[in-house]
Amino acid sequence: MSSVGGIDVYVMTMRPATAEILPGIQTRVLTFNGSFPGPLIKARRGRPVVIHQRNRLDVPTSVHLHGGEVDPQHDGQPMATIAPGEDRTYYYPNAQPHASLWYHDHAHHLESENVYRGLSGQYLLTDEVEEALPLPSGEYDLPIAIRDANVDDTGLHYTMSDRNRSTMIANGKAYPYVEVAARKYRIRFLNCSNQRFMELGLEDGGEMIQIGSDGGLLPGPHPTTSIPLSAAERADVVIDFSRYPVGSSVVLRNSGGFGNPELVGQVLRFDIVRTAEDDSSVPSVLRELPPLPQPTAERTVTLRMDEDGRPDPQAYIDEKLYDPDRVDQQIRFGASEVWTVKNLNQIAWHNFHMHLVQFRVLERDGRPPGPAEAGLKDTVNLRPNETIKVQATFDTHRGSYVYHCHMLDHSAMGMMATMRIS
Fold first, then answer.
1. pTM higher than 0.90 for the full model?
2. Which residues form the signal peptide (predicted)?
3. CB-CB contact of 197 with 247 (8 Å)
4. What are the 10-residue block averages of pLDDT along the chain, 422 residues in total?
5. Are residues 254 and 306 in the same domain?
6. Are 100 and 216 in contact (CB under 8 A)?
7. Domain boundary residue among 129, 158, 183?
């Protein structure tokens, strides 16, 4: 990274590499700069980031800053791909408030496999609101990207909609351990799975304090023992390890999604190895969100995929497959809209992600959202037959952007559509 005129400049090369996901076994992966997962980027509001992306893979790519407010040409559109051997420069203005974002490939029909094989990384954006709080910081602020995979001593195996992804991986390692001090830590969970729903909790039922979600800090802290995350969702939590004696351990477990609990249950182990001073705390008020404006329009969106056992199932938004030449929603710049999103499936789970905007969840099956969904979101989970309402304001950039199910196997099967803001 270099800095030029108040802009942070990165050069990333997308290239094949090997990673030791399982101890002692080298596995071929796709990477940014040889790192699995991709390098952590730390950014600050008001200080732009430029990333020169060089594609040295044998497949096209398109890099999307998930949750970022950027111009269309820098959004990583599904069809705006970087051909093998070519380069593209992305400009991120970082004009939005703090948030735990991430970046990943978005080349249509390839995004599922490319992300599965490693093309993703975390992007942490901070600002003066977040920095003014006495939350754990520095070495006590741990980003942890969690996913599942089908991996064995012969390598990483990809199949669309594979239900045998039974190895849990955290920051590129299967079932790792993390050494921590007996004090409070801020931990930024990212579910970077293709399609797994997770329910994260400490094995002893210990309390975690959720302080943030996709779009940054919640209005206030939410004490809980369980963090549900669908694919692409984020949750920032504070865990106080001072309640554990030095020399002890506590396991982070997953109780969500399909698969054998013996295989998909353990995520990682925290080893408490030393004492440390701790002047951090979690304030009772974390941020103030402005009141929602009066809605200017309402829309309804349906999500459905074939689940009748056919050999080549497809996935739809409003009963249509994604067509990059079709505009599905015309939105007036500056509008604030309520979208009702319905999962029409009887078995399949989905989630809903909008590019460009952070939205507010208004209702879940007619009921107010829980405290974990009280902040800004860009991805929201939908169980079978579930309906949600969200409100989004389109006042930052004009142009065409996609919205889709962020279970990437589903979006690669066609569950994606285009909105044009003008």
1. yes
2. none
3. no
4. 88 98 96 98 98 98 98 98 98 98 97 98 98 98 98 94 93 97 98 97 98 98 98 98 98 93 94 98 97 97 95 96 98 98 97 98 97 98 98 98 97 97 98
5. no
6. yes
7. 129
